[in-house]
Amino acid sequence: MRIGIVGAGGIGCLLGARLAATGQAKVLLLARGEHAARLAEQGLVLDFNGVRETHCLPVIDTANEAALGQLAGCDWLLFACKSQHTRRLAEQLKPYVSADCRLGSLQNGVDNEPILAEVFERPVMGGLMRKFFAHITAPGEVEVRGVLEAVLGDYPTGCGRETTAMVELLRQAGITVYASEDIRRELWRKLVLNNGCNPLAAVTFLDTQRMANDPDMAWVMRNLMREAGAAAAADEVEFSPHELEAVFQWIKGIDPITPSMQADAQRGKPLELDGITGAILRRAGLLGIEVPVTATLHHILLGKYGSSD
């Protein structure tokens, strides 16, 4: 099986390394700039829970249009880029992807799968990663901390043969994977979690444990989650107060995680505002409801760090 991974950030590099190690997949990483050059020249240095590994994987710089023809032989194209880049990369790559190539997303947010389905005009596998963080620490180097877990399913619902085969392949790669018959709901559950943690961490630079165990921070987190849960109704997804509290207790109960927005802010990288807080604001607007805590943090971060566009 030949798999192209769009976006060689923390998640993309981790997936590429683990999939290639199974011996069942030939992996092609799509990256850009200095990171792409370092991956191509020296390989990927992966620090997985303190154990350093080196992986040599084929790399394409997305700025090299001539090299994108290599995508024609891919059986799968997995998107792992930041959500603000999904549409641009999808439109750029579409001419090079065969008609029978399967598409999947393992990204933050709830907009990626609909965008991919629209651009490529075919069904899409939705997915999410959880219980760990994976960040680029330097060009060609990625740090991963936590337990590898994923949820996959056909978007918006169902779990067919090809997605089930990807579930099994990722399990062979050492990832605990759950198959979902309602991946849209699971993506929203993660967005509830992300909205509760990411914008607040980007403001405070505190990890999830410190925020969840501080009464004042916990109040903010719970309200961010409540607002995300209310916005989900725009996509015909509903969460009870009990379910929202369960999400808070889950993040409170696991080992500390550095949310991706905090890591990006610390490195001076664009924040994934549009895919997280922006997704909540857009749907709240459609529903005619107020989400004041989310809106406040969204605009603070937008004012401090600017748009990711």
TrEMBL record:
GO terms for molecular function: 2-dehydropantoate 2-reductase activity. It comes from Immundisolibacter cernigliae. Transmembrane segments: none annotated. One of its GO terms (biological process) is pantothenate biosynthetic process. Pathway: Cofactor biosynthesis; (R)-pantothenate biosynthesis; (R)-pantoate from 3-methyl-2-oxobutanoate: step 2/2. This is 2-dehydropantoate 2-reductase. It is an enzyme of class 1 (oxidoreductase). Belongs to the ketopantoate reductase family. Residues 182-301 form the Ketopantoate reductase C-terminal domain. It catalyses: (R)-pantoate + NADP(+) = 2-dehydropantoate + NADPH + H(+). The keyword Oxidoreductase applies. The keyword NADP applies. Its EC number is 1.1.1.169. SUPFAM superfamilies: 6-phosphogluconate dehydrogenase C-terminal domain-like (SSF48179), NAD(P)-binding Rossmann-fold domains (SSF51735). Keywords: NADP, Oxidoreductase, Pantothenate biosynthesis. GO terms for cellular component: cytoplasm. Residues 3-156 form the Ketopantoate reductase N-terminal domain. InterPro entries: 6-PGluconate_DH-like_C_sf, 6PGD_dom2, ApbA, KPA_reductase, KPR-Related, KPR_N, NAD(P)-bd_dom_sf. Catalyzes the NADPH-dependent reduction of ketopantoate into pantoic acid. It comes from the Bacteria.
